[in-house]
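Can't paste images in this forum, so I'm doing it all in text. The chain is below; anyone willing to post the predicted structure tokens underneath?
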Amino acid sequence: MKEADQISLFLSFFKGRQDAVPRYWHSAKSGKSGYAPVCANEWHLPQCRKGHVFSGCAGCAHLRHARLSRQMLEDHFAGSHILGIYPLLTDHRCWFLAADFDNHCGTHNPLREVKQFYEVCEFQEFPCYVLRSKSGTGYHAFVFFEEPVSAAKARTVISALLDEAGINRERDSAFDRLFPAQDRLSGKGLGSLIALPFQGKAAQKGHTLFLDPKTGFAKPYADQWNFLKSVQKIPESDLDLLMDEWHLGENRENPAAGQKGGTDHHRDFAIRYPPADFEQIARLCPFIAHCREDAAVLSEPDWYVMLTISARCADGRTSFPQITCAPYPGYS
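Text version of the structure:
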């Protein structure tokens, strides 16, 4: 594939704000690092005074955000620099949503949770694509949309899928946050950003590349560009359908929830699952039949699974003591 075609293909998936592009920086002197919007006046005298009057760009009257160019992307692919993207558009919509899983404290297993999330997305027929982060210790799970959708709607659905995967964001977890991290722009900034994949130096280590689930997300696909052509996008109607089926409601009591980057560790939405019908589950599920028939000798792990399933049911409080707990030898 020609380089021009590669860039066009890449931009058809990783779409975000066009009026600004963040670039990674690192100070060898202070040891600090981060992302900052590329300035179109950078190093152009007399407008740029970096390194003269002050060391940074904050408060500069000549700060002018540069737009993403093909040359910037070529340099990103070559490894000359690291670019990011602001996924939240000025109309509070987004073209994709990414879930970030990491191991910042060294005690988490992000790969395990990524697999859980991927399996739920696959079961719900929501195409999900996993990449390893540039650090090599975390993962980004992307869901792409056919058209820009409300960030609040997208975050509501993906939050529900995380919950369905058993990823409890209110407790210790490898899940860090969603990108975009806000439902709406506050008007005070450009919104959250996420690093763009296919970064040259990281890619040489197998990072920032799409990972093959058949390898347990251990190895990237051999031909990344050919794989990118096969990536599926979700229509907004699929989001609406799941919201209707699961009775998902956006929490309007706290519209500022998640507006500050890095604070998306807690539930941002009032997710209201319809209560399940235990008897309907019991008729169709061999596991429940096993729990009923072998209650007296049921293993403890199976017993806890049974409790978990029953607790999701409308009549769970009365059904599980009668069906499973009473005959279980360890039940009190």
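The chain is about 30% helix and 15% strand. The first helix runs from residue 3 to 13.
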